[in-house]
């Protein structure tokens, strides 16, 4: 079992920045790919960014490409999402998720992740 706890959300003006963190505990000796997802009111949860276990392979949804950066520090069992040039449409609850994996694998699919955090609210005002 892996427990995930997100932090770093908040209220920011359009054009501003936030850095989300996701701290993992529990069975962290296994190798996990990590993903960030978000869910706005009345919408389905959607993929934002993902990273493989070593940090050498990443992927993003088109709408955040060039503005968001996912990274990880395995020594600290923490994954980050640096969000720059935020837009009102980025407003959502952001979730991190983990799936056991090896190599360069990561997933963009909600259904493939085994462990989820409780979410952190990000609100971008115009």
Protein model, in words:
- The structure is a single chain.
- The chain is mainly beta and 126 residues long.
- The protein contains no helices and eleven strands.
- The chain has strands at 2-7, 10-13, 18-26, 32-39, 46-51, 58-60, 68-73, 78-83, 92-100, 115-116, 120-125.
- The strands form two sheets. Strands 2, 4, 5, 6, 9, 10 and 11 form a seven-stranded mixed β-sheet that branches.
- The mean pLDDT is 95.
Structure summarized in a few sentences:
With 126 residues, this protein is mainly β.
Low-confidence stretches: none
Main beta-sheet annotation = 7 strands, mixed
Radius of gyration in whole Å, from Cα?
A: 13 Å
How would you spell out the order of helices and strands?
A: EEEEEEEEEEE
Oligomer: single chain
**Class inferred from helices and paired strands:** mainly beta
Question: Which whole number gives the mean pLDDT?
Answer: 95
**How many alpha or pi helices?**
0
How large is the share of residues in beta strands?
over 45%
Global geometry: globular
Total number of beta strands: 11
Q: How far do the termini sit from each other?
A: 40 Å
Helix fraction, binned, reads under 10%
Could you give the topology of this structure?
Elements: E1 2-7, E2 10-13, E3 18-26, E4 32-39, E5 46-51, E6 58-60, E7 68-73, E8 78-83, E9 92-100, E10 115-116, E11 120-125
Parallel strand pairs: 2-11
Antiparallel strand pairs: 1-3, 3-8, 4-5, 4-9, 5-6, 7-8, 9-10, 9-11
């Amino acid at each position: 079992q892996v427990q995930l706890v997100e932090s770093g959300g908040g209220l920011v003006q359009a054009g501003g920045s936030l850095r989300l963190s996701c701290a993992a505990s529990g069975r962290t000796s296994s190798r996990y790919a990590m993903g960030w997802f978000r869910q706005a009111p009345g919408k389905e949860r959607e993929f934002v960014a993902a990273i493989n276990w070593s940090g050498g392979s990443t992927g993003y949804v088109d709408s955040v490409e060039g503005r968001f950066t996912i990274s990880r520090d395995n020594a600290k069992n923490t994954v980050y999402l640096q969000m720059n040039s935020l837009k009102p449409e980025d407003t959502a609850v952001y979730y991190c998720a983990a799936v056991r994996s090896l190599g360069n694998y990561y997933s963009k699919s909600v259904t493939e992740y085994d462990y989820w955090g409780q979410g952190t609210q990000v609100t971008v005002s115009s």
